[in-house]
Amino acid sequence: MQTQCAHFLQRSRSIFLLLLLVALVSCRGEEVVVLNLNSSTIERDEAELLTLTFSLSKSEEMIQVRVEASDVRYSWTLSATAGRDGRYTVGPLSMGRGVALPEGQYTLVVMLDNGQMISERFSVRRP
How much of the chain, in percent, has pLDDT values that exceed 70? Predict the structure, then answer.
C-alpha cells in the first residue's frame, strides 16, 4: 500500500512541476528588444543636449526610460511615447548651461509595464 501511495505522490508531484513550468514559460511572453538606437548631441544656448531615438520590437503605448551617464553619477528618468512612425524620442537631455555631458558609454534602460527591463549601451561624443 505504501508503494502505490508513494508512486502516486511522486507522479502527482512530477505533473504539478510540469504544469508549473508550462505556466511560467507561457507567462513570460515575448522578449522585447531595442532596435535602431541612435544618439546625437548638439550645443544650443551654452548647453550640450543629448537626444536618443529608437524603436522596440513590440509596440508599447508608453514606456519609462532611464538614461545613465558613463560615470553613473548622472541619470535621467522619464516617460516616452512612440511617434506615428513607431519610434521613441528621448530628450533633449542636458546637464545644464555651461556643463558638458560626460563622454563615454551610456546606458539606456527601458522599463515595460510587465516589469521587463531592457538595457542598451551607446556612446556619447562631443558635438
Answer: 76
Give 55's strand partners: 35
Shared domain for 10 and 52, answered yes or no, is no
- Shared domain for 68 and 80, answered yes or no, is yes
Q: Is the pLDDT of residue 25 over 50?
A: no
pTM: 0.71
Q: Which three cell numbers stand for residue 62?
A: 508608453
Q: What are phi and psi of 29, to 5 degrees?
A: 75, -175
- For residue 14, what is its C-alpha cell? 512530477
**Among residues 50, 83, 81, 45, which one has the least CA distance to residue 65?**
81
pLDDT band, very low/low/confident/very high, at 26 (cuts 50, 70, 90): very low
Residues 62 and 97 in one domain: yes
